[in-house]
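Sample entry (133 residues):
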Amino acid sequence: MRKMLSIVLLSGLISTSIAATPIDRLENAVNGYMQALKSDNPGLRSSALHNLARLKSDYPELKLNIVDDTLLNMSEKDQLMLLRVHAKLTFLYLNDAKLAKMIKVKETQDPQQFFIDLHEQIHDSFADYQPIQ
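Predicted structure, serialized as tokens:
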């Protein structure tokens, strides 16, 4: 069942390259990643998180609010703690234009390294925050 779902999702992602316009391809990709986030396969969920961040990095003007609820649900309920953390980091990245400008997802970058860099940037930003006194 998992293999079949993975194959169907993969074929859906491949079909995004055949779509008529760039907008259609982006919408198809986002829909495919949303389905992947609901998969039983943790590797597929992890890859979808990274690829959503990559979309935001490559297309900063792209509004990805459609995945917010899924990411928040995943950040609270995923079975794997690491994926819960990555889901929350992805949510923050997709909804903060400054982060998307500061941290770019590189094509050959290890997904784990991206999430480490993202966490460090958020941490550094918080360390620089001075509350109003």
